[in-house]
# Entry
Amino acid sequence: MHAPASAINKKALAYYLTYQFVPKPFSLNHAGPPRTEDYKFPRTLDPKKTFRHDETRLAENLYALLTDIIKTSLKQTTGPIGLLLSGGLDSTILLHLLRKNTRRNICTISAAYDSDRSHLKLCASLAKKYNAIHQELIITPAHLRQLARIYSPGLDNPIGDNGLLANYLMFNMLSSRTKLIYAGDGADCLFHGLNIHYLDFLDKNYLHRLKKTTDFPDAVHRRILLPKAHYPDFEHYKFDEIFLTKNEAHQYLGMDFDLSAPLRSITKTIKTNDPIKKTILLDLNFLVNNRVDYILKSAAANKIKIILPYLDSALIDYALRIPSSYFIKDLEQKYILKKAFENALPKEVISQKKRGMTPPFLDWYLKNRSFVLKTMLKATKLGVAPEYIRYLTDNINRSNQYAYGMRIWLVLNLVLWSAGQQTPDKTHSI
# Structure
């Protein structure tokens, strides 16, 4: 049984409601089990160990290393293989290497929100090219009510990542075909491929040269300058992933504390002057400590074994020795990974722009308004101020804006997590 609401760690609650990516150092449940790391990363990089090879050799070695990682994982497993296929670079690389190194059945699944199915045609084409058994999952607003199924007793924290539900649904659909699934998670962190990395790169390398604010278009003010002004101490995480200011934390949570303290405590342990490598190490540490639960827990709920090749320790060690100029070159992100597979994958995969899969929050919340409102009201029993819940409910119609959509998402997961700790374990069929 979960500890009563009075046992909720108020400081942890503030961190949870404030941001998604930056480290959350406490368990919300005082009685919860301690968190453990599944992966270890270096804190100090030796610049003398950086590779001196040209990009061609670096790319060839990267291709060979990823091939070896896939071969090793295949030797340790039997039966059909599952793969979460987005049609993007990372998952297509895995599909290519899996098919090249096994004759076993590969069962792919591609998900889309019913508001945007534009990538499904490419996914189906890739599955056909690599002789995979393919399925599609269309996620509708009705699926939102299934979020509670993920939160079984014993889960020490709610999971704030908005990819949680989609991953759970895909695992559930694939579980009748295979109990072994590969996923491309971690590649964006390891190869500096997130949108927040791009914005941070622009800020550090170009925008600081411009002196007058009138030199900036409105889009730059909105996407880079305002977040930078509000959250000067949050590294690249300031772009999109922080949802409360210090003043708002005081207003809605009744707490005065340094929101950036956990970030600084980790940053101090990372000894490198290379801003890209520093970002990669920060992201890897936060991914496995705070975020990777969104895929591990949803896999566990469906009794699935998950393999994440991009978090293999040998690959991480190799990537961290690649000169940072090959992570983003001529404003091309994940340059070295694309170089490694440019002759192996279809051109449309290599050349496409990165697309995210952010849920259509507005559609979800409006079509489940009663469920959303009733769930959010229960958060007051867990220490969330009624004023904050009222603020969110009054702004449901603005949840097509990411910040509003995510604030509501975090509260929903908080309440459903708490309820899950107080109910008997349940089956996870849909």
Notes: The chain has a mean pLDDT of 86.
